[in-house]
Amino acid sequence: QLMASGGGSVQTGGSLRLSCSVSGVTFGRYCLGWFRQTPGKEREWISIYGGDDGIYYSDSVKGRFTISRDNPKNTVTLEMNDLKPEDTAMYYCAAGSPGPEYKLHEWGYNNWGQGTQVTVSS
Description:
By secondary structure, this protein is an all-beta fold. The chain has no helices and eleven strands. It has strands at about 1-5, 10, 15-20, 30-35, 45-50, 55, 65-70, 75-80, 90-95, 110, 115-120. The strands form two sheets. Strands 2, 4, 5, 6, 9, 10 and 11 form a seven-stranded mixed β-sheet that branches. The chain has a four-stranded antiparallel β-sheet with strand order 1-3-8-7, with no helix packed on it.
């Protein structure tokens, strides 16, 4: 089970911190990720913390967002800085054991949080 929290409304340039608590899975072995979705669009990956400890960021958030994981606490966090209106979306945390071809795709993840809304106003 994954529980995401920390969304909210900020102005352009603001910051938010999303957290996701993970239970019921072998946390240390899983890839953990953050995805986001806006109405009418596919869910897109934005940051992945791989089971091999590799970290990935989409070009749209690179340099502004930072993902981290705390294995003893079973949490994964996304620090979001310099937020822009185009970051407005529902954000989801996910856990899974994707093959290489799906590490950066929602199909590689079978455990999802409930989503938390992030709204950035100009």
